[in-house]
Automatic annotation (TrEMBL):
A Gene Ontology cellular-component term: plasma membrane
An example Gene Ontology biological process: regulation of cell shape
UniProt name for this protein: Phospho-N-acetylmuramoyl-pentapeptide-transferase
Keywords, in A-Z order: Cell cycle, Cell division, Cell shape, Cell wall biogenesis/degradation, Magnesium, Membrane, Metal-binding, Peptidoglycan synthesis, Transferase, Transmembrane, Transmembrane helix
Transmembrane segments: 21-41, 113-133, 140-159, 179-196, 203-224, 230-253, 284-303
Lineage start: Bacteria, Pseudomonadati, Bacteroidota, Bacteroidia, Marinilabiliales
Record-listed Mg(2+) binding positions: 132, 207
Membrane protein topology class: Multi-pass membrane protein
Family statement drawn from the similarity comment of this UniProt entry: Belongs to the glycosyltransferase 4 family. MraY subfamily.
GO MF annotation list: metal ion binding; phospho-N-acetylmuramoyl-pentapeptide-transferase activity
Enzyme Commission code: 2.7.8.13
Keyword Cell division set for record: yes
Compartments, as annotated in UniProt: Membrane
Amino acid sequence: LIGFIDDYIKVFMKNKKGLAARFKILGQVALGIFVAATLFLSDDVIVREHVQTSAGADLQHIVVDPESGEQEVKFVTEDVKSTKTTIPFVKRNEFDYAWLVAFAGNAASWLKWVVYALAIILIITAVSNAANLTDGLDGLATGTSAISGATLGVLAYVSGNIIYADYLNIMYIPNAGELTVFVAAFIGATVGFLWYNSYPAQVFMGDTGSLALGGILAVFSVIIRKEILIPLLCGIFLIENLSVVIQVVWFKYTKRKYGEGRRVFLMSPIHHHYQKKGLHEAKIVARFWIVGIILAVLTVVTLKVR
């Protein structure tokens, strides 16, 4: 909706500036608040955790097979509302936003949701804007979004399958596997659009499409508790965003210090830098896709690496 309003102002109202940046940010913040409120209020948004003893150990019980009489030790679990998420390279691959407010005592029970909401707002705003910046070459944002979407679909499936979640020792999210249907539709839409958006493009998505792509990827990652993996999975978006930040900050700093602005890149976002270096647009996009695939594989690998 934000992107549509922006494009409408540019195309039909002949205003090249489009929607003011503050209104874009306000809309993204509103979306973040809505998503956070849904996660907090909906009884269907839960994760399955191991019940722990007062000493912090996982509670276990013995299950006896009625037919064979064999005994098996299993963990005691419960479905709860939680602010936990997935983070690689640590025990259980889990991080709890509540840890950030552990000092708050009794207030931590609600303050953790405030911190979680702020994190969601930051992620949605950052990823949607980064996707918008990436949409500067034919097929670049569309292709990288399809790659990231497919990876999130894999993560959703294994997170929603109790066997795979137990094998990988990751957070089990009941019914998360159902989201693969949405991912399939997302991939179909992006690949179908890419057919006409690849170089030389016949159609363009504008802010309506690019902001939506980033927003969908961000919200989906939050739902399946994989938002901290976004900087790795959507590394192309991150690099594009950082290139703009670095360019602007360095230009302003050197202008204040030396009286004239200097640039780190020939042009930002960074895909335009490579254009200025003489690389063909199609080659730049293909190489960015390759990097995106490598980052997607690394993201999946983090589930097993400790």
